[in-house]
Design brief:
Distance between the termini: 25 Å
EC number: 3.8.1.5
Protein name: Haloalkane dehalogenase
Structural class: alpha/beta
InterPro entries: AB_hydrolase_1, AB_hydrolase_fold, Epox_hydrolase-like, Haloalkane_dehalogenase
Largest sheet: 9 strands, mixed
GO molecular function, one term: epoxide hydrolase activity
Enzyme class: hydrolase
Number of helices: 12
CATH class: Alpha Beta
Order of helices and strands: EHEEEHEHEHEHHHHHHEHEH
Shape: globular
Strand order of the largest sheet: 1-9-8-7-6-4-5-3-2
Number of domains: 1
C-alpha cells in the first residue's frame, strides 16, 4: 500500500518523536567519528570538504546553501557519522574553497554542479543520499538527473524544485534582474550581501533567537566581504534564473525514479516558504514530510530533530 507520511499537524508532536528517536538511538550507538577537514584539487581549484564516518558505510552527500558553506553541517556530520560516511564540500567561492574572480571562473549552477560531480568522482562516493538545501537543490537535482543511478535517497531541507517555492515577494527583485540585468538592478541586490541580511537569514522565523549562535554570521560575513566575492554572489543570483526552466525536468526525475525522499522544511522560511515543500507530494508516491516550526537554516534550531529523522529514514530506506 502506498505510504504517505504527512507530519504537518502539530510541531510539538514532530519534535517529540524526532527527539525521542534521536535520544533512543544515541543510547545504543558508538561515539561519532572524528570529523576530518580536507582539500582536494578539482580542475585547478582547491575544494575544501568535511568528511567523517566509515568509508564502507552508506554515503550522505551534504550540499550547502547560500551564503554559508559546509560549516552549516558542522553539528549534523558528527550526529550521523557513527553509521554513515558523511561528506560535505564547499563550492567554489564559498567557505574554504578557492574563490577565483568572476573573470577567471564562470559562476553558474552548471559549473558548480560540474565541480561537485568531479569532486564526488575524485573523493569516491559513487552512490550517495543527497541532502539538498537552498543552493544545494539546483546542484543536487542536476546531479540526480545526470546520474540517477548514484542517488540512493533524497533529504530536502528548504530546497526548491517548484514554481510555488519562488512565488513570494523575496524573489521579485531577483526575478527583475533575471529579466533585465541592468547595473541598477544588480546593485539593488547588494543589500542581500550585508551583515544585516545575513543575520536575518539565520534568525527570521525561528522560535527563539537566543538559540541561534552569532558564530554563524560571524563565520559567513567575513567570507562574503572578501574582495571580489560580491561579484561572485551576484553572478550566482543571476544564474539562479537558469533553475526554474529546469524544474519540469527535475520533477520528471522524481516521478520516474521515485527516490526515497525525506522532506524536513523550516515552515517559517521567508526565502523558500512551505508553499515550495508541498508540491513534492504531487510527484513522489512515498514521501516522508515534516514541516518544522523554524526558519531558513532549520539545522540551527532543530538540528537534533532533523538528525533523528534522518537516521530513522535512512535506517529504513537505505541498506548498509
Amino acid at each position: 500500500m502506498t505510504a504517505r507520511i504527512n507530519s504537518e499537524l502539530v510541531f510539538t508532536c514532530v519534535a517529540a518523536v524526532g527527539l525521542a528517536a534521536s535520544i533512543a538511538d544515541a543510547g545504543d550507538r558508538p561515539a561519532p567519528e572524528q570529523v576530518l577537514h580536507r582539500t582536494v584539487t578539482i580542475d585547478g581549484l582547491d575544494i575544501f570538504y568535511r568528511e567523517a564516518g566509515p568509508r564502507d558505510a552508506p554515503t550522505v552527500l551534504l550540499l550547502h546553501g547560500f551564503p554559508t558553506s559546509s560549516h552549516m553541517f558542522r553539528n549534523l556530520i558528527p550526529a550521523l557519522s557513527d553509521r554513515y560516511h558523511v561528506v560535505a564540500p564547499d563550492y567554489p567561492g564559498f567557505g574554504n574553497s578557492s574563490a577565483p574572480d568572476v573573470d577567471e571562473f564562470e559562476y553558474t549552477f552548471d559549473n558548480l554542479t560540474r565541480v561537485v560531480e568531479r569532486f564526488t568522482e575524485e573523493v569516491g562516493p559513487t552512490k550517495y543520499s543527497l541532502y539538498v538545501m537552498d543552493y544545494g537543490a539546483p546542484v543536487g537535482f542536476r546531479l540526480a538527473v545526470q546520474h540517477p543511478e548514484r542517488v540512493q535517497a533524497l533529504i530536502v531541507q528548504n530546497g526548491n524544485a517548484y514554481d510555488e517555492g519562488i512565488a513570494n515577494d523575496f524573489w521579485e527583485p531577483i526575478k527583475a534582474y533575471w529579466d533585465d540585468p541592468t547595473p541598477e538592478r544588480k546593485d539593488a541586490l547588494r543589500g542581500l550581501l550585508t551583515l544585516e541580511a545575513t543575520k536575518w537569514q539565520y534568525t527570521h522565523g525561528v522560535r527563539n533567537v537566543e538559540t541561534i549562535s552569532p558564530d554563524t554570521w560571524g563565520h559567513v560575513q567575513p567570507l562574503l566581504d572578501r574582495p571580489g566575492n560580491q561579484e561572485i554572489q551576484l553572478a550566482l543570483f543571476y544564474s539562479y534564473g537558469s533553475n526554474p526552466p529546469l524544474y519540469p525536468q527535475w520533477q520528471e526525475y522524481l516521478r520516474t525514479h521515485q527516490p526515497p525522499t525525506l522532506v524536513v522544511w523550516g515552515k517559517n522560511d521567508a526565502i523558500f516558504p512551505a508553499a515550495g515543500a508541498h508540491p513534492y507530494k504531487r510527484d513522489l508516491k512515498e514521501v516522508e514530510f515534516h514541516l518544522l516550526d523554524t526558519g531558513h537554516f532549520a539545522l540551527e534550531e532543530e538540528g537534533a530533530v532533523i538528525a533523528g529523522l534522518i537516521r530513522d529514514f535512512l535506517g529504513r530506506r537505505v541498506a548498509d
